[in-house]
Design brief:
The longest helix has 27 residues. This protein folds into 2 domains: about 220 residues, FAD/NAD(P)-binding domain (3-Layer(bba) Sandwich); about 90 residues, D-Amino Acid Oxidase, subunit A, domain 2 (D-Amino Acid Oxidase, Chain A, domain 2, 2-Layer Sandwich), CATH 3.30.9. A hairpin with a 4-residue loop joins β13 and β14. The chain is of the alpha/beta class. The strands form 3 sheets. Strands 1, 2, 8, 9, 10, 11, 17 and 18 form an 8-stranded mixed β-sheet that branches. α2 packs parallel to α7. Bound molecules: flavin-adenine dinucleotide (FAD). Flavin-adenine dinucleotide binds next to α2, β9, β12, β16 and α11.
Length: about 375
């Protein structure tokens, strides 16, 4: 049972955010930047953010040529330009809040590898034929040409298996971040704004009573539930949202990532993608961070479990050995998994009211580092 003091000082807030990933924290920050006097509480079930935001590969990216073309097929040009604009704006907002150093920004650019396997023939031809049309679409967003094809000699220079890689498409706008430092800086930023965060606190239900919202939680030491109260609530739980809002069109999607031990004389720097973005790798100093392969076993990967899928980890090692680093030995230092969220037609996130005083902002797909700050700003604008 709560004490009178707890009821007085710990339970009531103006705004309550469920989930302390990049979207939840950005929403809280946007509210507090606009309304410094408001009381804002973030509830997080993990000891620290435990979904995608602390588990990702740290690409400051907005879509490769093949990804964008495939998105255009599903969503149409106009919606893709809108989405890229929101991603690019989000990356700026993140850096504006935390500084280039705070996010660990490294400007090495990003490159898409078009593979030689004949199953990619049509995709490659289409990508090369459309570089300029994509550039025309995106120049208003970036102010300059976004993509260019690199000379094929570069494939060998970067140490990739030239018998497997046909072409490279480069963008100077993509960059790397340090995922851990970025999230730590974002947590510190929100705390400096006076936002309260409670960890180890899972929200089990949300009840909008019109004049206030009760947010029921479990995991309290006294074994009784604690019901927090707020005027407005935002649900920012991404891959875990169906547990709270079972009717939303959203599915979890696990992503597996590995990091190697340092490799002496690693021949490349930057962020890289292939297979329409299903695989992605980058350097981290002299290490390689490599992830993806969800498309190999989508049914198993539609899960909120953080286990590792053997088929996918073996495939990642095979691709590291033969495609990415064919000339050097390496050792995998660590492998982990994170949970993304997919669903709907295309990659537009969900931003909608659940009831009069509750908004949901979620389903970030594979590019929430970019989109997170923009979505947070949009959720805050709906709540305030
Ligand atoms: C392996 C991997 C690699 C990726 N690589 C990149 C990349 O390089 N670049 C990029 O832009 N994007 C990348 N992404 C995607 C990006 O990380 C996500 O889109 C983004 O982090 C989503 O942020 P979020 O705040 O919506 O979700 P999350 O970070 O998942 O945050 C949701 C939070 O809600 C909490 N929560 C859930 N349910 C409850 C509940 N009931 N009560 C309380 N708390 C709850 C969770 O514990 C979690 O901390 C990657 C994702 C993965 C998994």
């Amino acid at each position: 049972m709560l004490s009178f003091w707890e009821q007085q000082s710990f339970i009531k807030y103006d705004y309550l955010i469920v989930g302390s990933g990049i979207v939840g924290l950005s929403t809280a920050a946007s509210i507090k930047e606009k309304e410094p006097q408001a009381t804002v509480l973030v509830l997080e079930r993990g000891i620290f953010p435990t979904g995608a935001s602390t588990k990702n590969a740290g690409f400051g990216c907005f879509g490769s040529v093949t990804e964008l073309l495939s998105d255009i097929d599903v969503m149409g040009e106009e919606n893709v330009v809108k989405l890229v604009t929101r991603r690019w704006k989000g990356l700026h907002k993140l850096e504006q809040r935390l500084g280039a150093e705070g996010i660990g920004r490294k400007n090495f650019g990003g490159t898409e590898l078009l593979l030689k396997d004949k199953k990619y023939k049509d995709l490659n031809e289409r990508a090369l034929a459309n570089i300029e049309s994509i550039n025309r679409l995106l120049t208003p967003v970036f102010g300059k040409k976004v993509f260019e094809q690199l000379p094929t000699q570069k494939i060998a220079d970067l140490g990739f298996d030239a018998s497997q890689v046909a072409h490279l498409i480069f963008t100077p706008f993509e960059f790397q971040i340090h995922t851990g430092d970025m999230m730590r800086a974002l947590l510190e930023y929100t705390m400096k704004l006076g936002i309260k965060i409670i960890n180890g606190c899972e929200v089990s239900a949300i009840e909008d009573q019109g004049n206030r919202v009760t947010v029921h939680t479990k995991g309290h030491v006294s074994a009784s539930e604690v019901g927090f109260e707020a005027k407005k609530v935002a649900v920012c739980t991404n891959g875990f949202t169906r547990k709270l809002l079972p009717d939303l069109d959203i599915q979890p999607g696990r992503g597996i990532v590995m990091v190697t031990e340092p490799i002496e004389g690693l021949p490349f720097k930057g962020t890289y993608h292939f297979d329409e973005g299903y695989y992605y790798f980058r350097n981290f100093g002299e290490r390689i961070i490599f992830g993806g392969g969800r498309n190999l076993d989508k049914a198993t990967e539609t899960t909120t479990d953080f286990d590792l899928n053997k088929l996918i980890t073996q495939d990642l090692i095979e691709k590291l050995t033969h495609l990415i680093l064919p000339h050097q030995p390496f050792e995998v230092a660590h492998t982990w998994a994170g949970i993304m969220a997919f669903g709907g037609q295309g990659k537009t996130p969900i931003l909608q009211p659940v009831s009069d005083n509750v908004m949901v902002g979620t389903r970030l797909n594979g590019m929430g580092v970019a989109l997170g700050s923009t979505l947070g700003e949009e959720i805050a604008a709906e709540l305030i």
